[in-house]
């Protein structure tokens, strides 16, 4: 990981995107085990259909974890000062999550140089599933 310098960043810059593999049943099962979230709507087709869903779907927090990964591939975790997200859609099986971030502000706070990022996780059709912002300290 290269060190991101505050002086090299401009408002409007995009951080490297994170494009993942299509969500499948294995992804969901592995996330259940890792997170401890065994809600049957994410792993049991019959349960999902009884809830009037066409199939199981991804945990919202899985996409939130992807946004965390987007940030920590750009800077070390210790530099993340704030992460806030809002769930805006359901990630269905077969969706390809793509996470992006764009610098929207540069500022100083608490003696640190920081940037505010607009972040999002969308599917291959450009439909947002999570949107939010992050604040990151830079050197």
UniProtKB/TrEMBL annotation:
Domain of life: Bacteria
Pfam families, alphabetized: MaoC_dehydratas (PF01575)
InterPro entries referenced in this protein's UniProt entry, alphabetically: Fatty_acid_synthase, HotDog_dom_sf, MaoC-like_dom
Domain MaoC-like: 19-115
Cited SUPFAM superfamilies: Thioesterase/thiol ester dehydrase-isomerase
This protein's name: MaoC family dehydratase
Source species taxonomy: Bacteria, Pseudomonadati, Pseudomonadota, Gammaproteobacteria, Pseudomonadales
